[in-house]
Amino acid sequence: MRSLARFSFNQATANNWALAELVDGCAAAGVGSVGLWRAPVLDHGLARAAKRVRDAGLSVSSLCRGGFFTAADWLDDNRRAIDEAATLGAPVLVLVVGGLGGRALDDARAHVATALDTLVPHARAAGVRLAVEPMHPMYCADRGVVSTLAAALDLAARYPSRDVGVVIDTYHVWWDEKVWSLIAEAGAADRIAGYQVADWVTPLPEGVLLGRALPGAGHIEIPRYTQAVTAAGYTGPIEVEVFNADLWTRPGPDILADTIAAYLSHVVPNE
Amino acid sequence: MRSLARFSFNQATANNWALAELVDGCAAAGVGSVGLWRAPVLDHGLARAAKRVRDAGLSVSSLCRGGFFTAADWLDDNRRAIDEAATLGAPVLVLVVGGLGGRALDDARAHVATALDTLVPHARAAGVRLAVEPMHPMYCADRGVVSTLAAALDLAARYPSRDVGVVIDTYHVWWDEKVWSLIAEAGAADRIAGYQVADWVTPLPEGVLLGRALPGAGHIEIPRYTQAVTAAGYTGPIEVEVFNADLWTRPGPDILADTIAAYLSHVVPNE
């Protein structure tokens, strides 16, 4: 029977829904877990947000996001992000590592490793696991130079698995002909720190950020991914995270209802 | 000294320039080679186009493009494309293999292999080499399910190298962390059938097709690619192929002049 047991509603799917209403809406819908974003959490107030979520009986599957190591203040900013994740009780801080930022590609990738070296002790002390998210290669220049699950695993392998893992997002990895063996490898090495789903539709919009779709509306065989990460040993939350400009114009409760329906029909295989 | 010896002007860079004027313009500018596209060639008349190019003293580096094995008439259409390449004296037919076309991704990829099996004997008989072009993963759903140079090489390896090679286009492969070893591997196996250059700029436009840039205007280290394919043993034409909606609004001779300037400054390393 399909259930919401592993479902987590990522806040970015209802980008304009105020945090308090989102928390109440999730609790009312029987959703037990949310993925939160730093900006709305800080807008609401970190301590207040943590209390609100806790009081509603929700857990926080991840905090999105640290990374962007191209920014001038990346070190302080990522230390703050780690502390915020700890305050929220989020076990995982998702890292979108940033694009070129004026560096040559090899140098930008090397800088990511340097940044991780610097951050891992702080994260370990805070009890937060860093999760490197490989980004679709179309974001290589401007959002994330870690373009494949293989590259993310290579980065993570330099640290204990409890400190650094990877996030597998169907939208970013679905084109990769090696993805199935990489998921198995990631699971065997205990590196799957998170699993997010969104579907791929074309044509892509200008800027290619806000054209993702709810599961089932596009081309990705999402149940196969759910089965693969589960078979690889990942039994944690399944976040639906959909950046979609049209979806964002709708009322939060409607988005949540459609997201739950999509999850039950197109994310969890027959259990 | 930098020269135009290896330069080939791909017709798509000046998409609205009539074939006859393009041929005359290239000859007048000292360009010895052009990459042609099927539609404008057929518009001009195949035999007339072949004669026009030959009479101008130009060689045809490649014909773009066959592939799109998702189309109902893919077999007949690709046989015609092979014959057209032979008529034009193009040694290479570039294959953009097509997207999902309603198939699951694995099935779409398997279908590409089946299509190649069917076409190779015809191509061999015509003396035309098929060149599989890996497409940037952002085109996986709708233009090409062969998303990496590794996958293209795996496909090509099933045939003699004189029959099937790969096209390396900087725009499609630049994000790949394995690209340098793959280029070396492709050269060692005598699989580099073509080398095309365009640069990557953001933001990507809607549809992500017409936002490529002339070499030097974007993020790709193009001279490094030229050196890599040359070091791998490829000494053939270097096609500049840039799909850019703004560029296309300009007069053909201006586009050619800027393309030549970009080539000399940002494609060929110091020789």
The total of helices of chain A stands at 11
Shape of chain A: globular
- What oligomerization state is this entry in? homodimer
Tell how many strands the DSSP assignment of chain A holds.
10
Overall helicity of chain A: 40-55%
Largest interface: A-B, 30 and 30 residues
Characteristic terms for this protein:
eight-stranded parallel beta barrel; two-stranded antiparallel ribbon; homodimer; alpha/beta; 271 residues; 10 strands
Structure write-up:
The structure is a homodimer of 271-residue chains. Chain A has 271 residues and is an alpha/beta fold. Helix content of chain A is 42%, strand content 17%. The first copy, chain A, contains 11 helices and 10 strands. In chain A, strands 1-2-3-4-5-6-7-10 form an 8-stranded parallel beta barrel, surrounded by 7 helices. A two-stranded antiparallel ribbon of chain A has the order 8-9. In chain A, β1, α1 (19-28) and β2 form a beta-alpha-beta unit. In chain A, α2 (38-44) packs across α3 (46-55). The longest helix of chain A is centred in the middle third of the chain and has 22 residues, at 105-126. The first copy, chain A, is globular. Chain A starts with 6 loop residues before the first strand and ends in a 5-residue tail after the last helix. The model of chain A has no long low-confidence stretch (mean pLDDT 97). The interface between A and B is medium-sized, with 30 and 30 residues.
Give a short synopsis of this structure.
In chain A, 42% of the residues lie in helices and 17% in strands. Chain A has eleven helices and ten strands. Chain A has helices spanning 19-28, 38-44, 46-55, 74-88, 105-126, 149-156, 170-173, 179-188, 222-231, 245-248, 252-266, and strands at 7-10, 33-37, 59-67, 92-96, 129-132, 164-169, 192-197, 199-200, 212-213, 238-240.
